[in-house]
Amino acid sequence: QVRVKESGVGSAQAGGSLKLSCELSGQTSRCTMVGWYRQPPGQERGMVSTLNSDGTTSYGDYAKSRVIMSRDNAENTVDLDMNSMKTEDAALYYCTAVCGTKQDWGRGTQGTVSA
To answer: What residues have CB less than 8 Å from 75, skipping those under 6 apart?
Structure first.
């Protein structure tokens, strides 16, 4: 089993950057995908960005030109850096990992954007 935990306080000003970090623990060598999703108020959870172990990435439509996501296998961390933040980017941000046949999720961390 892999445990996923988001850390840090996600806050940004409009036009600025949001930086979030996630720590994986447990059998992380089995993880073939890591990623970030988000759920704005009143909306469904959707993908921000995912990174596969072969290096391929996927992005939400709004995210491709705004997101840098990285995984540090030595530190077992997954970082998200999203720029040009808008008030509509405010959401609960979730880190996730697919390890073996199971997808594990963190509890989420609030990403806020101030105008």
So the answer is: none
Of 34, 23, 8, give the one whose Cα is nearest residue 112: 8
DSSP code for 76: T
Cβ(2)–Cβ(12) under 8 Å? no
Among candidate residues 96, 88, 93, the one with its CA nearest the CA of residue 19? 93
pLDDT, tens digit (0-9, with 9 covering 90-100), for 85-95: 999 999 999 99
Residue 11 CB coordination number (10 Å): 15
Closest CA to 46 of 7, 93, 78, 84: 93
Please write the tens of the pLDDT for every residue from 25-46: 999 999 999 999 999 999 999 9
Token pair of 103 as six digits:
């997808």
